[in-house]
Design brief:
- The chain is of the alpha/beta class.
- The protein has helices at 38-43, 63-77, and strands spanning 5-8, 26-29, 48-49.
- A three-stranded parallel sheet has the order 2-1-3, covered by helices on one side.
- The protein is globular, with a radius of gyration of 13 Å.
- It starts with a strand and ends in an 8-residue tail after the last helix.
- The relative contact order is 0.26.
């Protein structure tokens, strides 16, 4: 209850650092080759985030780097607190 899903995909306007992450949120990333299914993004249009790419020649970050960037921001917003359970 209360958990939200955040989808991370390239080419959308809302940046990952504009989201306000909560402890119970889930982060969902697509495959490097195909991204997320369009039906999933259509189901949660207000919860799709992207990582800005400053080099227009670059296609995207690899999956591990993308997860690291967004997860770090979510943890930073929460003061790097964790649960023992």
């Amino acid at each position: 209850a209360g958990a939200r899903i955040w989808l991370v995909e390239q080419g959308v306007a809302r940046r990952y650092d504009e989201a306000v992450f909560e402890p119970e949120d889930y982060l969902v990333f697509g495959r490097e080759t195909a991204g997320l299914p369009p039906a999933l993004m259509e189901k949660f249009p207000e919860q799709v985030l992207s990582i800005p790419m400053f080099n227009t020649e670059s296609r995207s970050l690899n999956l591990a780097n993308s997860v690291s960037v967004v997860l770090y921001e979510a943890l930073r917003q929460q003061g790097f607190k964790y649960s023992d359970s």
